[in-house]
Amino acid sequence: MVKYYHIMCLSSTLSLFQCFFFFIPCAATTTTKSAGIQPTKLVDAVCRKTYSSYSFCVESLYSDPRTPTADSYVLAYISFGLAYLNASTTQQHVARLLNKTAAGHSRQQLQRCYHDYNKAISALQLAYNDLNSETFFELADLAGVASLAADDCQAALNTTFSPLTNMNCDLKGLCKICVVVSKLFTGLT
Questions:
Q1: How far apart are CA 74 and CA 63, in angstroms?
Q2: 161 contacts 55 by C-beta, under 8 angstroms
């Protein structure tokens, strides 16, 4: 049944939105402790190369039920899907904050973050399209663009901790996973 859903997501008749929101559960609601997860060799190899939190990587990837049987290609869909979901959710959160914030410096900072996340979402949509067309060489660069958008948002906030700090860090972590998975297709390490 999961393979059927995956094939449906590959078809051009479904939008990116439909694929992510109907078939990929939100990481925040289905996270499990990595101690209870026995990662596959592929997930273990990817997560060891992210140079960030191993448990964050494993827990993020295993929030998707396809991960235990995923090959490199499906793992790419999972990792980019999680990054896309994070970026779009964060942008929606920024929009809610903007609605509550009066004119001033804070509003300008939030507007900057909104635009930064728009860049991240666009890059991740392009990556998804590249996966659909089996064009893999720009995947790592597109994940890098999304990661830089999170950096730019954090810099715009001009503080070490803000209401968006955790979301920015999560997107950066997910993008690191995307970069490592992307390199599975290009032979770069």
A1: 14
A2: no
pLDDT tens per residue, range 128-139: 999 999 888 899
Compute the distance between CA of residue 90 and CA of residue 160 in angstroms, rounded to an integer.
18
Please give the Cα distance from 126 to 139 (Å, whole number). Answer: 8
Tally of CB atoms within 10 A around 97? 18
CA distance 50 to 7: 28
Please state, in angstroms and rounded to a whole number, the distance separating the CA atoms of residues 155 and 150. Answer: 9
For 143-155, the pLDDT digits (tens) are 999 999 999 999 9
Tokens for 147?
């990661």
Q: Which pLDDT tens digit goes with each residue over 45-73? A: 999 998 778 999 999 999 999 999 999 99
- Which residue do the tokens 């896309």 mark? 84
Over range 17-31, report the average pLDDT.
36
Contacts 24+ apart (CB under 8 A), 43-46: 43/67, 43/70, 43/75, 46/75, 46/177, 46/180, 46/181, 46/184
Q: Is-contact 86 28, C-beta < 8 A?
A: no
Mean pLDDT of 92-116: 89
